[in-house]
Design goal:
Elements: H1 13-36, H2 41-61
Helix pairs in contact: 1-2
Length: 62
């Protein structure tokens, strides 16, 4: 018999929400600099949300 490798337990929604909030805050700092230099705020918001979701997704894999 081969050994059973335990899979990690899924993270709670609260933990995911916290990770997403921290990622949004981090991306938002850079976004605010870009908006201050003349970037479209809606484009900056889209970039912020995408980068936050990507950061949380990578965090779940690692």
């Amino acid at each position: 018999m081969s050994p059973v490798i335990p899979s990690p337990t899924p993270r709670s929604r609260g933990e995911l929400a916290t990770q997403l909030a921290v990622a949004c805050l981090g991306a938002g700092v850079i976004t605010s600099v870009a908006v201050a230099q003349g970037q479209n705020p809606f484009t900056a918001l889209g970039i912020t949300l995408f980068s936050a979701v990507a950061a949380v997704a990578v965090g779940q894999v690692l």
